[in-house]
Each structure stands twice: as C-alpha cells, then as structure tokens.
C-alpha cells in the first residue's frame, strides 16, 4: 500500500471503513469502488465519503515525495493518488508552511526597503528646483500646451498621464517623459496608488500609467503662474529644436490616423513595421502637410485591404506590405511632383493643446505644408549679439514688408515695446516678419511687449 494513514479516530467501524476507502492492490488500483462502500452510518451518498474520511484521518501518498524534504505529500481524495512514483513539484504541509513564513518575511523586508526608498525619493523630488528662466524653446512649448490641457492642476496641484489626454492626438507619454527627464516635472511617490513603485535589482521602478506628476519649484522662488505668464510672451528663437518638436507632434498625428485605418481593416503590424512607416512619414513631413499624409495613409491601407482578398494572401501578409506601399506612394509623389490630396481632420482626432499652441504662435497646423513649416522655424534663428551685417537682410525685409502693407507704425510700436520689455532684437525682428507675412501683427499698447496670440485663443 502506497498510502500512509494518520488516523484521528479509534472507532473500530470508522477505522475499518477508512482502510477500505484507501485500500489498494499491488498495481496501485483501489480494491473497492466508492459506491460499494455504502451504506455506512449516516453518509447520504458516495460524493460525501471523501469529506467524511478527511475529517477522521490524513492520507499521505508515498508515490509523491515532497520536493523539499522527500516526505510523502498529503492528499485529500482518491483522485489525487498516483499509481506510480512521481517527481512532484509540491511541498509537504510542513515545508509549505515554512516557505509561506519565509515569503512573508521577505515581503515584509522588501516592503520596508521600498518604503525607505520612496521616502528618500520623495525628499529628493521635494528638494528639486528648476531654472525656468533657462528653459529651452521646445520644452517651453510643451509646457504651454500642458498648462492648457490640465488647468488648473498644473499650477496648483498634481496630475497623471490620464489627465493629459488633451495634450496631443495620440499618446502624451513621449512629451511628458521629456519634461520629467529634464527636471521640469517631478513625480510624487507618496501620492501615487499602492503598487505604482517597486524595486527591481535594487533600483526604484514605477508603472508610468499611475505615476503622479507635478511642476518642479522654480530655482528663483518665482510662483508658477508668474513664470508661465512669461512663457506666453517670450520670443522663440531655437528653430532647430522647434522643428524637431513639430515633427515629433506631426508624425504622431499622422500615425494616429494610420493606426485607426489599420484597425478598421484589421491590419496587424509588427512594431518594426510600424517604425518603418513612421520613419517614412516623418521624412515626408519636411515636404508635405499632415493632412496630405493622411490621404497617403488612407490609400495605402485600402490597397492592402484589397490585396488581402486575393488568392494566396491573408490579412497578415497584406499588412506586411504596408511599409513598402507607404514608401512607394511617397516616392512617386516626389518623383512626379504630384499634388497630394488633403484630408479633413476627423472629429474623433482633435489636434490637442500642443497643436493649438503651434497654431497660436506660428500659425502652423495640419494644413501647413512641411516645407513652409520648416521655413518659418528656420527664420527663428538665435542671435543674442546681433551685428549690423546679420541684421541688414531681415531688417530690410521687415521694413519693406511693413511699408508695402502700410503697417510701418504698428511694426515700430511693437518693436519698441518688445525691446523695452527686455526681448532680444534679432528674434523679435524675425517674429515680426513672420507675422507680417501672415498679416497677423496688430498695434500693441505702449509699454506692452510684442505678444503672440496665446494657446487659449485670440
């Protein structure tokens, strides 16, 4: 018999009944059927026998040794017994209790270590300061858009990624990560829900979807509302950084449409294939508008959908052709000088507050050709110490355009007000010229700096 019994009863009838229940022959088969054991006392049916036996004994299967100590494993019914010796992965009751105790101890130690690290991290974040006077142009633009997306919590409280859905057409993660990496945003571990932070290889990790963010304190002690106001009136001059930020935003706008179309036709692309498509669109955005590339995405996805219905093709194979289709459509348009059709923005795909800021400050949106957008950013070249030579051409263009539009007085008033407010000359001239070309310069009140339309309207 491979079943060892530990009896809790001395009643001869019960002992005999228990032994009959567990009795086995040399091959490991049970000698009697469960149904043949009845009637016995007040047991109503055969299904209740196993529970009756468990109350009066413990059974250990010698064919199932404990993985830790080798002692037989406790079983509760015939169905758990094994006819032949088995390498079990289970622990006996004693070893399992010991393992549970060790786990509770390790969990308590890890929880204590995590609490200590979180407390230390919270102190570091609270002590962190950022010099908003030195903020870069692209980061300032994201911050203006974020302020519009999460008002008033950006200034007075905290927020999570879920609160930033209005920031961009798709995922706000890369833009929030940029602000957090540069120290503009801090995370508040003590306000996050349990399980947000954890230790891995003795390093503090977090689940970004539930992280709580807040603005870092200003290095000079200025209130957030004050330095945010200065961002609305600053002269942007880093054309290269703003170009890259526009491309980051615009390619996400295109890819959001592309993914939506793929979902409609059940096209599933690998991550590498999506990266290839994104790379093609990002390059094309230097020439075409976002709206024009929506039409390219529409055409490519529908071509793939048609291909999926052909013999020897399926959805997976058709989807794999999409990176090549997008690339060939763009190559053909560039080679033949085609004018790509421009699609209208869908209601379910808003531009987001970052798109609003690009329009308010530079009058660039989904309909602006990429070449024109880059040209406008290229005009915003930093020139902290302008010389007569460097200013000659832009100043001449500014005055010529102002006279042609009969706006010389407005331009001079705006220029004087901007310089009086401490703005730099070269960026101000470039900004005035940009707005003149788009006929958006208005007469400022004396003493007011040149103020671009902010992200909340005219």
Q: What would you note in describing this structure?
A:
The radius of gyration is 36 Å and the shape is elongated. Mean pLDDT is 88; it is low at 441-458. The strands form 4 sheets. A 3-stranded antiparallel β-sheet has the order 1-2-3. It has a two-stranded parallel ribbon with strand order 4-9. It contains 17 helices and 9 strands. The chain has 458 residues and is mainly alpha-helical. Helix content is 51%, strand content 8%. Strand 6 (197-200) and strand 7 (203-206) form a beta hairpin. The N and C termini lie far apart (91 Å).
Q: Count the strands?
A: 9
Order of helices and strands: EHHEEHEHHHEEEEEHHHHHHHHHHH
Through-space gap between termini: 91 Å
Radius of gyration (Å): 36 Å
Low-confidence stretches: 441-458
Could you estimate the helical fraction of the residues in percent? 40-55%
Tell me the strand order in the biggest sheet.
Answer: 1-2-3
Number of separate helices: 17
C-alpha geometry: elongated
Strand content: 5-15%
Q: What would the average pLDDT be, to the nearest integer?
A: 88
Q: What oligomeric state is this?
A: single chain
Structural class: mainly alpha
Please summarize the sheet with the most strands.
3 strands, antiparallel
């Amino acid at each position: 018999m491979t079943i060892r019994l530990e009896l809790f009863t001395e009643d001869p009838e019960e002992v005999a009944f228990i032994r009959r229940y567990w009795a086995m022959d040399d091959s490991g088969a049970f000698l009697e059927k469960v149904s043949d054991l009845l009637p016995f006392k007040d047991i109503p049916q055969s299904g209740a026998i196993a529970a009756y036996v468990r109350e009066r004994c413990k059974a250990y299967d010698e064919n199932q040794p404990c993985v830790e100590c080798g002692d037989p494993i406790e079983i509760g019914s015939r169905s758990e017994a094994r006819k032949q010796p088995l390498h079990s992965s289970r622990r006996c009751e004693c070893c399992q209790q010991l393992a549970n105790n060790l786990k509770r101890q390790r969990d308590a130690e890890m929880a204590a270590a995590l609490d200590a690290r979180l407390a230390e991290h919270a102190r570091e974040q609270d002590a962190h300061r950022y010099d908003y006077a030195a903020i870069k142009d692209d980061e300032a633009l994201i911050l203006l858009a974020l302020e519009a997306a999460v008002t008033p919590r950006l200034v007075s409280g905290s927020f999570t990624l879920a609160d930033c859905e209005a920031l961009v057409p798709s995922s706000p993660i890369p833009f929030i990560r940029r602000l957090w990496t540069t120290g503009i945003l801090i995370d508040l571990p003590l306000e996050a829900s349990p399980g947000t932070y954890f230790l891995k290889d003795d390093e503090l990790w977090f689940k970004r979807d539930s992280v709580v963010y807040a603005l870092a304190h200003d290095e000079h002690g200025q209130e957030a509302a004050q330095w945010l106001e200065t961002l609305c009136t600053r002269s942007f001059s880093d054309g290269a950084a703003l170009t890259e930020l526009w491309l980051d935003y615009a390619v996400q706008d295109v890819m959001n449409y592309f993914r939506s179309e793929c979902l409609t036709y059940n096209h599933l692309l690998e991550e590498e294939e999506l990266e290839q498509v994104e790379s093609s669109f990002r390059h094309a955005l230097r020439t075409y508008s976002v709206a024009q590339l929506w039409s390219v995405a529409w055409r490519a996805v529908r071509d793939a959908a048609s291909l999926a219905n052909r013999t020897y093709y399926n959805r997976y194979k058709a989807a794999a052709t999409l990176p090549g289709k997008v690339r060939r459509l763009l190559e053909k348009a560039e080679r033949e000088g085609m004018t790509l059709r421009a699609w209208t923005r869908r209601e379910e795909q808003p531009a987001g507050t970052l798109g609003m800021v690009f329009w308010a400050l530079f009058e660039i949106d989904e309909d602006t050709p990429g070449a024109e957008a880059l040209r406008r950013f290229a005009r915003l070249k930093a020139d902290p110490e302008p010389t007569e030579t460097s200013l000659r051409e832009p100043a001449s263009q500014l005055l010529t355009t102002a006279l042609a539009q009969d706006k010389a007085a407005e331009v001079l008033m705006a220029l004087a007000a901007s310089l009086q407010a401490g703005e730099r000359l070269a960026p101000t001239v470039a900004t005035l010229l940009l707005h003149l070309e788009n006929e958006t310069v208005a007469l400022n009140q004396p003493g007011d700096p040149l103020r671009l339309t902010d992200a909340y309207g005219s």
